[in-house]
Amino acid sequence: MRLAVPWELAPVSTRTIRTYLLLLLFLALRAFGNLCLAWGTKHLHEALAAHPLAYLRSMAQPFIALGIVMLIVALLVRLALLSVADLSFILPMTAIGYVLAAVLGRFFLHEAVSPRRWAAVAVIFAGAALVGSTPHSTTGKIQGAK
Amino acid sequence: MTWVLVAVMVVATALSDLLQSYEMKRAGAQSVGARGVGRLLRMVVERRYLLLSIACLAFSFFAFMALLQSAPLSFVVPASAASFILETVAAKVLLKEEIGARRAAGALLVLIGVALLGGA
Q: Would you say B49 and B68 are in contact if contact means Cβ atoms under 8 Å apart?
């Protein structure tokens, strides 16, 4: 008779832990990637919207380059996440990013977040989570499981 | 200027998602294994709508960067959620998807939230 090893005892929970680790990694990468981009672009000497070439030049700024790399890795992590979890689980969970952006803006960029903006962020989070929790295939041949 | 950039970002995001959704529904289910990713990359180059959607995505990202430069992070990221409203309407009208009560309520909440952001 074989001895049961720990990972055989709980195959479901290791998958769950892996899913949440990937989710945590994705949220952190996207939030801090956006923060790096915000920090980098705010310290540029030229306005980005005015010239298309300004974007190319801006990528030499270390924080902007770091932010873009983090966002690309975040996209890859999201692909991995999609392979272990349902889109209907991932979409509402990633709506946490709206709240994270407000928190990071408040504490790292010292933005003045008014009570009204906190309320707006909360309502947007709720709305995005609600949209994300709806069945995700209504037109294809594969109908959503009842 | 801020709201012009928000509009560019939101419309470009919605357009990109719509084009992707339309083309990928025609293409059928795809996998994301090592071979699947290669196949996906080839599809992006070969299918006109997917290329166009990548162009829209680039536009949306550049607008996002310009916004981050001039507006607070705590405004820009939540404002980007406005694409949910446009996408929900477009999904119903153009892609003929069924919009349930929950999705409609969610899009409405996002609309209220973005309106709140406007005066904050």
A: no
